[in-house]
Amino acid sequence: MDPILERYHALEEKVLAYNPNLDTKLLYSAFQYADSKHSKQMRRDGTPYITHPLAVADIVADLKLDTESLLAALLHDCIEDTDASKEEIARLFGEDVAELVEGVTKLTRIKYASLAEKQMENLRKMLLAMSKDIRVILVKLCDRLHNMRTMQYQTPKKQHEKSLETMEIYAPIAHRLGMAVLKYELEDLSIRYLDPLGYKEIETQLKARFSRHREFLASTQKRIEDRMAQGGIHCTITSRTKHIYSIYWKMYPQHKTLDEIFDLYALRIIVDNVADCYNALGLIHDMFNPVPGRFKDYISTPKPNGYQSLHTTVIGREGIPFEVQIRTWQMHETAEYGIAAHWKYKKGGRNAQGEESTYEWVRKLLESQQDTDAEEFVKSLKVDLFSDEVFVFTPRGEVKGLPAGSTPIDFAYSVHSAIGNQMIGAKINGRLVPFQTQLQNGDIVEIQTSKAAKGPSRDWMTLCKSNEARNKIRQWFKKERRSENIVTGRSSFEAELKRNGYTIDEISAPDVLPRVLKKAQYNSLDDLYAAIGYGGMTSIKAVNRIRGEMAAIAKERREAAAVSDPLAEEPDELQQEMQRHVKTSLPPQPPQKARTISKSGVIVEGIDNCLVKFAKCCSPVPGDPIVGFVTKGYGVSIHRADCPNADPRHRSPEEAGRWVEVRWNNKKEQTEYSTSLEVYAKDRPNLFLDVATALSSAKVRTDTINARGMNDGYATVRVVLSVRDRYELDTVVRKLTTVSGVMSVTRGRG
Ligand code: MN
């Protein structure tokens, strides 16, 4: 017989064994359809292309999935690689099968690049979210498994790419779906191509060891079988060697030898009911010495992916440790096939439990994974398969998760508010689209911006879906309008002041401003200006409110001057007038605080009384998390823990030992620490003055301050100042952020 046809018949037989009601005519016609569509294509190994869909269907049959999954497996590459259309497949094999094939095709089209872990997580989420029907991801996993099994025919570059993708995307998905058998094989195949030498070494060692231990394992299994029979426990026992991938991750990064891995061998005891699991465990612990701390009860506390078993490690004869896993048949099914076990073809009709409850089960599984932190994978894999999220790509291949129904507006604002505010156009998959277009999973979204953009329009707030975008648009309107209001309010107020013989400088002096604001009943001058600009207040009224206070201040000053110098003549009116109009570029500094610079205030663990200096790159202040670096001859240099120069990832191995733990001493004698801030703001007249005013109203000592305007209409003001601690510094930062036009205040660098 034709070898291809032979393979088809083997498949049919495999399916008939678990599904006697199989519509063999339908399965055969799908095979024929795929065969004719792929007839001109070859696999890289020289066999006709149809061998691939046949092999994928064979793996789907191993999972005992339903007929639609089998048909989808046979047809899965038709839309992507041939002239077949979804409509034609729907007509011939039904809408559901067509949906499945299209789903697999979409997953195939996702372009993959190695990304940061956070991005990986999003990509896995995207794949799951795109597989609205869980069978799509099941077929896709089988497809990937067969491609990995035949990877030896690919170029080394392709082998590496696909293996990395498998390890980072598909194996974790198989894991979270509880499909251990698939996961192990995917992982072993990928590590084999990613580190051929490391893989080979373990494989060789395992083989050598296993030939020595084969006897031991067989005799141990026999002894246990006898003992279980004596104890009246009906069971099936199998043995296995730990798979290479997990040995790999124990050996190389943790520097362990094969001998130090306790669970290299495992015996699996499958019993009929839960009570017998614990009975069997009792017998095992009676026969062998258990290794302390290795017993785990995953029956009473299942793993997040639904896995249940009892695990214990015991020491056998000859001192060889081995793991014993005890479970029921039902637990075994779930452990091996996970989610697929629940999607299995059931006698008495497809989906005996009904589609809804199947989805319910999936949803519960994934939800339970969200709440637990017991398992390592949970932290990175929080997904709700039916969540209201949509996942799209940036042009650079990063994945963004947005609420379902999001538009390019949401996307733009999720990248940065400036991108949203300057957006003039949007492209999805390279095509220009209207702003209200809803994003689909896997779309590549590109935002076109212009510095000359007029900013968001009001109706964007109804077109966007995310609160983030809506808030940012609202903020823009408030802020834009506020700055306009401040500008007009300020000039009106200034003119009114002038008519009354005062200047803004006088009003803003640090000892005057708080009293004036109190009388005017505003929190800041900007608030007052904004109110005037908006029309909620008139400048005449504002000046009237503060006139009395200004007179009182002038009187106090005269009296103070008289007391400090009783012989001095009262200054005449003209002199007073002149003083009033002297412009100072900087408001007066507050009185200097006492400084005692004797002890740094830092304790270096393990070193007494050493010379300590603060790194210039990040200038830490008490309250900042810090680390120390032992310099060559200049004592210990103290960095902020978040300083790029102290980043553990950038530390060279030979210097690793020089990084030491340090902490702040509460009983420090040094009371002031020099540090710097960078204020980034929209450039405008008096920006510099207002920043300086804010600094002095915060009552900190400013050492230097300089501003640099940039040609794009923004300016950076760099401030070197002395503070007691982080708390004081944070107060300054808060004050500075309220200055009109300030976009950001950050700690200085270098
Ligand atoms: Mn394929």
Radius of gyration: 36 Å
Stated plainly, the CATH topology of the largest domain is called Hypothetical protein af1432
How far apart the termini lie comes to 78 Å
Q: Give average pLDDT, whole number.
A: 81
Basic shape:
extended
Number of helices: 29
| Proportion of residues in helical segments | 40-55%
The distinct ligands, each listed once, are: manganese (II) ion
Supply the helix-strand structural class: alpha+beta
Per CATH, the class of the largest domain reads: Mainly Alpha
For the biggest sheet, the summary is: 6 strands, mixed
Extended strand count: 20
CATH superfamily of the largest domain: Hypothetical protein af1432
Low-confidence stretches: 347-361, 368-386, 565-571, 574-598
Write a concise keyword list for the protein shown above.
Ubiquitin-like (UB roll), alpha+beta, Beta Polymerase, domain 2, binds manganese (II) ion, extended, Hypothetical protein af1432, five-stranded mixed sheet
In short:
The protein is α+β, with helices and mostly antiparallel strands and 750 residues long. It is 49% helix and 15% strand. It folds into six domains: 3-191, Hypothetical protein af1432 (Orthogonal Bundle), CATH 1.10.3210; 197-343, Beta Polymerase, domain 2 (2-Layer Sandwich), CATH 3.30.460; 387-463, Ubiquitin-like (UB roll) (Roll), CATH 3.10.20; 482-564, no CATH class; 602-664, no CATH class; 673-747, ACT domain (Alpha-Beta Plaits).
